[in-house]
Design a protein that fits this description.
By secondary structure, this protein is an alpha/beta fold. It has helices spanning 5-13, 48-63, 120-133, 150-154, 195-207, 230-238, 252-268, 298-306, 318-325, 336-350, and strands at 29-35, 38-43, 70-74, 105-112, 138-142, 171-173, 176-180, 217-223, 243-248, 272-277, 282-283, 290-291, 310-313. The chain has 2 domains: 5-74, Fe-S cluster assembly (FSCA) (GMP Synthetase, Chain A, domain 3, 2-Layer Sandwich), CATH 3.30.300.130; 105-350, Rossmann fold (3-Layer(aba) Sandwich). The protein is 32% helix and 19% strand. The longest helix is centred in the last third of the chain and has 17 residues, at 252-268. The structure holds adenosine-5'-triphosphate (ATP). Pfam families: FeS_assembly_P, ParA. Homodimer.
Length: 354
């Protein structure tokens, strides 16, 4: 067998870890690279003491392979991401047969956008709050694994408990059940994962979180990362989604990307529940003059062109940002923005989407 990732993994499967299993079956091997005779990988996901004890044996096992010139095994110091109290978040995905329902949840709705920064997370949190205010039992999953913003927007920062070391108990804020990968990692810690690890983490967020811990949910809102990448693809293919909401600003560039997101949902067979125009109208708080900084009406026009429902427009409002930054979504209060969210929530309920 010539030197390859597979031959290295095969050798690693033959190494017994001090506390049982082997490094591959225990999912401890990350970022394995084989270039010519040079083998490099990161070992993480067990205690530092166990990894330090196993490292020389692991290196020797790889070095004994034909064609190996050098072996570099990196054991990061400090606890691995997702380690510490409770379950480890971030693993390779486990095989599953077809799209799975989320236990304890009646409807699952993804909120996506083509372009970043158009307000998808703001819309997700406020819509979750507005639906909860309308009497629905709502969950909010922050699937924006590279840039989780729901802990800040919903004002939660406690690490979720895990009584059995596997099940994760979500938190509650503003009447909404909340879970974010950001709650499992240190705030300033970057997530440096390749696609499979991201997909495994998402699978954990959907399968290991006890979404019905406070009672069964009417709807789980999933705040997606921007774009049309691995996470969106995995979610649509592996989870029984009831539909997707696409958020865009009226600006041409944002709309162009929103069309890509819509095309992705269409091709993956995820029904689009509707489109939302965010940052639509700016009303000057001093003189009441209405301005359209990013244009106006582009999203409803696109919805009409595609024959998709238009759910409504949301104003560009300083209060929205301040409330989001303060962890108290604007939909928890009164005023134009809160009313706009209540209107969209009503439409979703009337359409039977929730
Ligand atoms: N209608 C609005 N009025 C004023 N500010 C807004 C509005 N919507 C969003 N914002 C602000 O714009 C910024 C980006 O919003 P948000 O993080 O929700 O966007 P996103 O599309 O989720 O971004 P990302 O691409 O990072 O996931 C935030 O500071 C937010 O408070």
């Amino acid at each position: 067998m010539s030197l390859s990732k597979e031959s290295v993994l095969k050798a690693l499967r033959g190494v017994a870890m001090p506390s049982g299993g082997d490094p591959v079956s225990r999912d401890l091997v990350r970022a394995l690279a084989v270039q010519g005779g040079i083998v490099r990988f990161v070992l993480e996901g067990a205690s530092e003491a166990e990894l330090a004890a196993a490292k020389p044996v692991i290196e020797a096992a790889v070095r004994s392979l034909e064609g190996v010139e050098s072996v570099t095994v990196v054991v990061p110091s400090g606890p691995a991401k997702g380690m510490g109290a409770g379950p480890k978040i971030g693993q390779h995905p486990t095989p599953q047969a077809g799209p799975q329902a989320v236990e304890g949840v009646r409807h699952v709705i993804a909120v996506g956008s083509g372009k970043g920064g158009v307000g998808k997370s703001t819309v997700s949190s406020n819509l979750a709050v507005a639906l909860a205010r309308a009497g629905k039992r709502v969950g909010l999953l922050d699937a924006d694994i590279y840039g989780p913003s729901q802990p800040r927007m919903m004002g939660v920062n406690k690490r979720p408990a895990s009584p059995d070391g596997k099940t994760i108990l979500p938190l509650q804020a503003h009447g909404v059940v909340v879970m974010s990968i950001g709650l499992m990692l240190k705030e300033d810690e970057a997530v440096i994962w390749r696609g499979p690890m991201l997909m495994g983490a998402l699978q954990q967020m959907l399968g290991q979180v006890a979404w019905d811990h406070y009672g069964p949910l009417d709807v789980l809102i999933i705040d997606l990362p921007p774009g049309t990448g691995d996470i969106q693809l995995t979610l649509c293919q592996k989870t029984r989604l009831d539909g997707a909401i696409v958020v865009s600003t009226p600006q041409d560039v944002a709309l162009l990307d929103a069309k890509k997101a819509l095309d992705m949902f269409r091709r993956l067979g995820t029904p689009v529940i509707g489109l939302i125009e965010n940052m639509s109208t700016y009303v000057c708080p001093n003189c009441g003059h209405e301005a359209h900084l990013f244009g106006h009406g582009g999203v409803p026009a696109e919805a009409e062109r595609l024959g998709l429902p238009y759910l409504g427009e949301l104003p560009l409002d300083l209060e929205v940002r301040l409330a989001g930054d303060a962890g108290q979504p604007v939909a928890t209060g009164e005023g134009a923005a809160s009313e706009a969210y209540a209107g969209i929530a009503r439409k979703l309920i009337e359409a039977g989407a929730v």
